[in-house]
Every structure is written in structure tokens, then in C-alpha cells.
């Protein structure tokens, strides 16, 4: 039975590789145009051992830039990518932009290519490098922050923490990046390897296989799938909560939470989100 | 070899993307289960009747035999499930959504049986999210009522079958009788050890983290814990899943093809294998569960264990 299952996965892999070839060659018309506007923030999770392949990581970033995805978060558990940050950013800065391989058709959202463009232009690509210490450990630091803010003083009022408080605490200690819309996982394990849990409530997660065998066609297919699936976001619910917070905050698509303060100190939460 | 482990989402799609991403959750309206189906001595010689099909209990031994293709040593200890697709299942068949919930309950019941039979120690199911309160009141009232009736009807069976029940999530929004029933159910079954069924109702992964931090803050204030000792391990011990010795699932299954974890066990799923199943929850049966477990074991064989 194990042999049968293995053979099945082997043939499935062959089919996928052939499909990737067709996509990369531009032979599959439905992948000609990608509407990447749905991907405001992309997370790339890489197994730490595979993250040592800096050239592969660079290649992946080049593909993403060619597609037009400019806000990318790179994560690996051990911090290998963090340590490679300087090398990666310097290499990208020195490179010129190039056209997506075998993608001869228009990719919406891609800037017109000029030879003077640097790949890592401030306007072009924003990279975030994080590791496990920016996940659970960060929440622990945020908890510490909340305690010191609300409980360590002589103030007798000890408010109950809310999700908004935690989000504020994370921002206060330096974690201000948005939640990814899409997460691509490269590596043997089909899990997110400890990516900051607070940020992935409604993130689409796709396992891409090994970084060593990454294919441009698979990348296109994954992004195409995400951009064509209906997320059912957009239901506006107006709730009133008696909360003391006064901050005005706005997080953009796909999950928008707007906090407003009215004159009588009631806080309106306007949720724009989908039902899971 | 690792290229063979491509995600199903990149495989030729076996289904059309469903544009209705609502997540209806089944109720816990179990029909009465034959107690002998969960015989504690490992062998059930009785026959159970389900939907008119007679099942030979002698063929369903607990922990002694697994279906072909599964290895005992690679079975997950804790399986979590996001039971997605009940309403879509009903709509596809032109049925009212309540039929979808009923069918979902049957599917849940079967999975509970299989977990008992195959030696899985903990099963956590996402029954109702804190976000689901935004659904029509008639629907949420119906679900709460069904949950209450189902729990009441099945409590005795669970007690006798060795199933321990825990309910996580904020219960303050529940009707008072349901709150009392949940407390009683957890108390009555707390010593059972065959299977720990954790039902997440009105649950939010982010809120779980927040309440854990709140709990720690109170302990620091009371001098039980030092401020400098606050770390991720302390937080993990205060999460609602601290009711089990195995709080982190080994395998998460989500049905209906959605590729999100939807605010479910955010902290606990850091190193959990994610399995996204195409079929809707009411159609998730023996074969589908078997496939999920085989896939899990396949990955384990290739790459060994993972860090927790």
C-alpha cells in the first residue's frame, strides 16, 4: 500500500512538473494575465536548511519582482534569512530588472521595465526578514509590555486585555507590518514553521514543495489560484462597543478594521471581512 | 524527491473553486451511539446500525488493527479539524442548510468513532468561530439549540465510551442552560481517557492568546510569576488547550478546499501539518480520513519528526 501511495505521488509530481512547463512557456492562456492587486502582502516561509540556498532565494525574489509583487516577507525559523539580509539586499540593489521568463504577455501591475531600474528600489520592492523570535517570543514581549503598561502602576483599574490591546502592544515593540494575504511555504513540511501566529488569521497558505525544485510555473499557478478564488470579503457589520481606546487605525484589504471614536467615547468597530 | 510533495492545491484541480466561502459549522446533535461501538476492552462484538447498514463490530477493533497503509508508530496523537462546507453541501443538493448541519454531525460522529478505533488521543474540532456571531440570529440560535440538545443526548454515551469532553472558547454568550450543561459535561467526563474531544465554540485563536497573556498578568500581579519569567512557554501553558497534555495538533484537516486556518489555534498550529481537503465536511468519511492520515504519515516517513 505504501508503494502504491508513493507511486501515486510520483505520477502526480510528473503531471505537476509538466503543467509548470506549460505555464512557464506561456502555452496555457488562462495564466497569461495575473491580477496581483489582491496580494497586498506576500509571505514566503522557507525551511531553515533550504534557506541557506541564497541563490535560490534571490531567484525567487526576482520572479516575484517580475510578476509585480513588491511587498514580501521572508521567514525562516532559525533566522538564516535574517543573517543573509544584507547579502540579499545588496545583490538585489545591484541587479537590473528583467522580464519574467517566458511570460511574454502582460502581467498587470508590473511597472514598465527600464534598464535603469534597480531591482530593490525603494518604490519597487519592500522586504521584511523575520524569524521565530518575531513570532511567539514577540507575543511574550508584548505581554510583558501590556503588564507594565496596565498592571505595574499603582492605578487600581486593571483592565482586561483585548485583541486590540495586543495588536497595539506588538506595534509598540516594533511589529507594525501587515498581515499577509498569501503565504507560500517552501520546504518539506507542510506547516508554517512558526510564522508569527498573530498575523495569519485569514492568510491563504500554499505549500510549494522544496526550494531546490521550485518552478516559475508553480509560482504563477499558486498566485493565479489565490487571485481567482472568491474570498467573500466585503460584508460590512457595524457594531458598537464601549471601549476606552481612542486610536484610529486602518488595515487594508483583505481584512479591514476601522476604529473610530465618537464624541461620547463609544467606539465603533467597522468590520469588513468575510465569514472565514 | 521533495518535488513530489507538491500541495494538492497545485495539482490538477479535482474540483471547481467554490465561491461561497462561508464556513458553516455542524452542530453536535449526535444520534445515540451504540455504546458497544466503543468497547473499552478493545473488541466490539456487537453490531451497530447506522442508516440501516449493519456494521460488524468484530471487525472494528480499537487500537489492534489499522487500515492498510497506516503505521501505528506514525499515527498523529492530536488531530484538529475545521469542519467546513456544510451549507455548501446542502446548497449543492438543493437542501435547506439545516440538512447540511445534520449531515455534518453524522460525519463528525463517524470521525469520533474512527479516532477511538485508531488510537488517536485528542480530536479538536472547530464548531463555531467567534466571527460566526455575525450570521443571522435565527441560524446562531438554531446552532446553539442543536449544540445543547446534542450534548445532552450524547453525554451518557460519551461517558460510557470513555470519551472526555472539553469545550474551549468564550461561553458567556451562550444561553445559561447551555453553560450549565457544558460545565456538567466536562465534569462528568473529566476522568475519561480513551479520546479527548475538544470542541471549539465561540473560539478565536487571537483571543486565546490574549486571555493567556491576561492570565499571566494576573499571576504576575499576585506574585505567582515573575515579570522576567514571561516567555512563550508560559503563554502556551495558559492557552485554552491546556486542558490536554497534547495541546499542539500534529495534523490539521480543513475541508471544502479553503486554504486558511481562519483564526483557529493560531499559536498551537506552528508546526502542525496542514492538510486541505477538497470535499465538503459532510462528505468527509472513512476514505477521506484515511487519505489524510496516509498523507500525514507519508510526510513523516520522508522527513522525520518536527520541532515542537
TrEMBL record, chain A:
User: EC number(s)?
Assistant: 2.5.1.87
Q: Which reaction does it catalyse?
A: n isopentenyl diphosphate + (2E,6E)-farnesyl diphosphate = a di-trans,poly-cis-polyprenyl diphosphate + n diphosphate
| Cofactor section | Mg(2+)
The pathway where this protein functions is: Protein modification; protein glycosylation
Q: What are its GO cellular component terms? A: dehydrodolichyl diphosphate synthase complex; endoplasmic reticulum membrane
Q: What class of enzyme is it?
A: transferase
Q: What is the name listed in the Swiss-Prot or TrEMBL entry for this protein?
A: ditrans,polycis-polyprenyl diphosphate synthase [(2E,6E)-farnesyldiphosphate specific]
Which PANTHER family does this UniProt record tie to the protein? DEHYDRODOLICHYL DIPHOSPHATE SYNTHASE COMPLEX SUBUNIT NUS1
Principal location listed in the UniProt entry: endoplasmic reticulum
Single Gene Ontology MF annotation: ditrans,polycis-polyprenyl diphosphate synthase [(2E,6E)-farnesyl diphosphate specific] activity
- Compartment list: Endoplasmic reticulum membrane
Q: What is the source species?
A: Olea europaea subsp. europaea
Q: Which family does it belong to?
A: Belongs to the UPP synthase family.
| Key words, A-Z | Endoplasmic reticulum, Magnesium, Membrane, Transferase, Transmembrane, Transmembrane helix
TrEMBL record, chain B:
Coiled coil (UniProt feature): none
Q: What InterPro entries does this protein map onto?
A: UPP_synth-like, UPP_synth-like_CS, UPP_synth-like_sf
Which UniProt keywords are given for this protein, alphabetically ordered?
Answer: Transferase
Check the record and name the PROSITE patterns matching this protein: UPP_SYNTHASE (PS01066)
Give one GO term, molecular function aspect. Answer: ditrans,polycis-polyprenyl diphosphate synthase [(2E,6E)-farnesyl diphosphate specific] activity
Q: What's one GO-annotated cellular component?
A: chloroplast stroma
Q: Which domain of life is it from?
A: Eukaryota
Q: Does the keyword Cytoplasm apply?
A: no
Q: GO biological process: any one?
A: polyprenol biosynthetic process
Q: Identify one Pfam family in the record.
A: Prenyltransf
* Cofactors required: Mg(2+)
Q: What is this enzyme's EC?
A: 2.5.1.-
Q: Which PANTHER family match?
A: DEHYDRODOLICHYL DIPHOSPHATE SYNTHASE 2 (PTHR10291:SF0), DEHYDRODOLICHYL DIPHOSPHATE SYNTHASE FAMILY MEMBER (PTHR10291)
Q: Which HAMAP family match?
A: ISPT
Q: What protein family is recorded?
A: Belongs to the UPP synthase family.
This chain's protein is named Alkyl transferase
> What is the organism of origin for this protein?
Olea europaea subsp. europaea
Amino acid at each position: 500500500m505504501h508503494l502504491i501511495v508513493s507511486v501515486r505521488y510520483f505520477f502526480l509530481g510528473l503531471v505537476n512538473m509538466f503543467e509548470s512547463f506549460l505555464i512557464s512557456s506561456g502555452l496555457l492562456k488562462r495564466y497569461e494575465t495575473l491580477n496581483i492587486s489582491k496580494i497586498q502582502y506576500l509571505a514566503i516561509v522557507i525551511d531553515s536548511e533550504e534557506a541557506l540556498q541564497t541563490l535560490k532565494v534571490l531567484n525567487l525574489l526576482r520572479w516575484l519582482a517580475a510578476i509585480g509583487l513588491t511587498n514580501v516577507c521572508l521567514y525562516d525559523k532559525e533566522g538564516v534569512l535574517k543573517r543573509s539580509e544584507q547579502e540579499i539586499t545588496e545583490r538585489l540593489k545591484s541587479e537590473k530588472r528583467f522580464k519574467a521568463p517566458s511570460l511574454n504577455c502582460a502581467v498587470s501591475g508590473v511597472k514598465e521595465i527600464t534598464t535603469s531600474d534597480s531591482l530593490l528600489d525603494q518604490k519597487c520592492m519592500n522586504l521584511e526578514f523575520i524569524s521565530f523570535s518575531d513570532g511567539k517570543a514577540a507575543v511574550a514581549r508584548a505581554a510583558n509590555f501590556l503588564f507594565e503598561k496596565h498592571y505595574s502602576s499603582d492605578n487600581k483599574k486593571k483592565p482586561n486585555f483585548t485583541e486590540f490591546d495586543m495588536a497595539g502592544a506588538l506595534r509598540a515593540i516594533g511589529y507594525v507590518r501587515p498581515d499577509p494575504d498569501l503565504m507560500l511555504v517552501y520546504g518539506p513540511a507542510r506547516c508554517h514553521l512558526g510564522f508569527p501566529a498573530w498575523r495569519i488569521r485569514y492568510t491563504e497558505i500554499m505549500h510549494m514543495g522544496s526550494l531546490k525544485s521550485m518552478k516559475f510555473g508553480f509560482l504563477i499557478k499558486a498566485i493565479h489560484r489565490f487571485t481567482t478564488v472568491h474570498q467573500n470579503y466585503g460584508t460590512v457589520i457595524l457594531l458598537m462597543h464601549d471601549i476606552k481606546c481612542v486610536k484610529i487605525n486602518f488595515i487594508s484589504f483583505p481584512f479591514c478594521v476601522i476604529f473610530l471614536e465618537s464624541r461620547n467615547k463609544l467606539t465603533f468597530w467597522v468590520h469588513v471581512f468575510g465569514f472565514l | 524527491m521533495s518535488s513530489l510533495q507538491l500541495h494538492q492545491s497545485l495539482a490538477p484541480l479535482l474540483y471547481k473553486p467554490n465561491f461561497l466561502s462561508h464556513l458553516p459549522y455542524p452542530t453536535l446533535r449526535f444520534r445515540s451511539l451504540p455504546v458497544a461501538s466503543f468497547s473499552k476492552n478493545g473488541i466490539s462484538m456487537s453490531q451497530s446500525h447506522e442508516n440501516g447498514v449493519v456494521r460488524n463490530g468484530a471487525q472494528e477493533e480499537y487500537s489492534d488493527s489499522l487500515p492498510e497503509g497506516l503505521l501505528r508508530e506514525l499515527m498523529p496523537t492530536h488531530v484538529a479539524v475545521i469542519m467546513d462546507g456544510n451549507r455548501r453541501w446542502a446548497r449543492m443538493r438543493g437542501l435547506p442548510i439545516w440538512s447540511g448541519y445534520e449531515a455534518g454531525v453524522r460525519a463528525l460522529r463517524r470521525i469520533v468513532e474512527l479516532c477511538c478505533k485508531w488510537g488517536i488521543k485528542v480530536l479538536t474540532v472547530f464548531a463555531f468561530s467567534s466571527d460566526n456571531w455575525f450570521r443571522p440570529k435565527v441560524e446562531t440560535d438554531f446552532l446553539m439549540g442543536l449544540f445543547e440538545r446534542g450534548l445532552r443526548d450524547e453525554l451518557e454515551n460519551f461517558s460510557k465510551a470513555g470519551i472526555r469532553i472539553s469545550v474551549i472558547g468564550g461561553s458567556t454568550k451562550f444561553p445559561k442552560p447551555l453553560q450549565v450543561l457544558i460545565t456538567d459535561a466536562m465534569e462528568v467526563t473529566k476522568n475519561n481517557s480513551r479520546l479527548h474531544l475538544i470542541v471549539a465554540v465561540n473560539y478565536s485563536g487571537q483571543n486565546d492568546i490574549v486571555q493567556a497573556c491576561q492570565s499571566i498578568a494576573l499571576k504576575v500581579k499576585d506574585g505567582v510569576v515573575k515579570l522576567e519569567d514571561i516567555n512563550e512557554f508560559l503563554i502556551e501553558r495558559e492557552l485554552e488547550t491546556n486542558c490536554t497534555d497534547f495541546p499542539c495538533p500534529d495534523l490539521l484537516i480543513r475541508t471544502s478546499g479553503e486554504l486558511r486556518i481562519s483564526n483557529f489555534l493560531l499559536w498551537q498550529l506552528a508546526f502542525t501539518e496542514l492538510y486541505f481537503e477538497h470535499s465538503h465536511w459532510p462528505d468527509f468519511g472513512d476514505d477521506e480520513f484515511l487519505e489524510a492520515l496516509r498523507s500525514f504519515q507519508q510526510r513523516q516517513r520522508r522527513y522525520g519528526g518536527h520541532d515542537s
